[in-house]
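Work package 3, deliverable 3.1, input record:
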Amino acid sequence: MDRTEIIENTRERVIESISQNMYLYGVSPSIGRLYGTLYFKDKPMTLDEMKEELKMSKTSMSTSVRTLTELNMVEKVWKKGVRKDLYEAKTDWYQIFIDFFSNQWRKVTAMNVKAIKQSRKELTYMLENEVLAESEKQQIQSDIEKYNQILDYYDWLNRLFDFLESDEIFHHVEKRNKWSE
Amino acid sequence: MDRTEIIENTRERVIESISQNMYLYGVSPSIGRLYGTLYFKDKPMTLDEMKEELKMSKTSMSTSVRTLTELNMVEKVWKKGVRKDLYEAKTDWYQIFIDFFSNQWRKVTAMNVKAIKQSRKELTYMLENEVLAESEKQQIQSDIEKYNQILDYYDWLNRLFDFLESDEIFHHVEKRNKWSE
DNA sequence: ATGTTTGTACAGTTTAAACTGTATATAACG
DNA sequence: CGTTATATACAGTTTAAACTGTACAAACAT
């Protein structure tokens, strides 16, 4: 095994490890492997280069790159004279982590909040306008209380995301250069 | 449509919304629906009751409950005289959120760190013990620098999890009772 | 002990996600 | 303008995940 091969293997191991773990961001291992590949290439890549490197279809590369773009993990770059689209990996993992929450989680919680408010509205209406048996009333009030607690939680979650998005978090959990220079 | 049905529908909407969004925790919609169902039942449930309620197999209920238990979203409870296992939903979503990171994310980052340290070790060895062309040397040093940056990031991430796990986070992003009493 | 009940392993089936190849729209170039 | 190159929509295929039913092991009751 020659040296170039060893270097290649060390990379391969790390890429594999990154890809296996990217399910935390809700993407498949293949997409993870693509990100890993882009991460180690210091130049931007075209879809054809990715296809070649990963031995996969161009269609897959296209959709995967789109997914990674939506996650803010990859961006399209322009280069004069090059017709093909070029993509490169973003390398600021702190930012990627924070963006993931701000984008993905916020979207999801917003949908939940909507559903809950609608349900709460309907229950409140019943409570105010209908003649109810005592057991029904308690049932409803118990549900409304649950909804309220969930709303408070989502409110907290959003403020947490604000906290992360502003760089305030780095005052309390600071970046350190323990390993890198 | 009578009142009981309306109440049921409002719950159903919220459960559906919860279940659709639980992919953020890496679980399937069915598992989300199970959690939602348990969440609204104020009593613990047996596997047979879940099976009945969701019209699914007992095997699925068993594995789903296990998954939810690993996520700290459900816990087994004991009740004198009842032979069947009883499970109930945990309701402290703040804690669930934090536990998710402390457990799942930490596990994953630990694996990544291991792979990276191994790779870095091999590269460092080459650098110190082999005669290398200048281009190879630069290649290796560039990779090592990448590994170091990743390690610093993971170090930060773990300290962030510490920050969440200690209740320090609640001093900066406090719980509020805006909706609930 | 013996018989019953309950939870889960496992193999097989169904359903959904990932992936490919072709066909087409859009943009770049002469 | 016509021609060529590039990315993506879409239908079809493959692969993986989710789910079920049966069979068995562990726990309990008698």
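Chain B has a mean pLDDT of 96.
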